[in-house]
User: What shape does this take?
Amino acid sequence: MEEAAHSARIRVTRRAATEFAFSGALYDEHAPGLYRCVDCGNALFDSRTKFDSGTGWPSFWEAIATANVCEKKDFRAGVLRTEVKCTLCDAHLGHLFTDGPQPTGLRYCLNSVALRFIPRPANASEKP
Assistant: This one.
């Protein structure tokens, strides 16, 4: 099982594949916490900006810091999309769309296997 998970992670983060919708472990995660890059540990997204987009992938309306993710034009699917990558290790995370909720109108649509979820301790403050 561990070898299959590693293989899926490599396909997504290093070869820019996409996991099947509703197949990832984090699309339905609702606990408070932090989402880090699975390859390097870079802090990427906070659960406070996660929302249910109905797409089957973890979706966020804002990154923790714009310096932690980078965007790249992506023509691989035959249409122009915006790829989202980790700035520290260049891992493919997913794609960015402009159909998200306010206040940003953005939807970072990410692959679960590209993320490591760190639950927030119960005694930690919910204030940003």
The mean pLDDT is 93. The domain at 2-119 is CATH 2.170.150.20 (Metal Binding Protein, Guanine Nucleotide Exchange Factor; Chain A). The longest strand covers residues 69-74. The chain has one domain: 2-119.
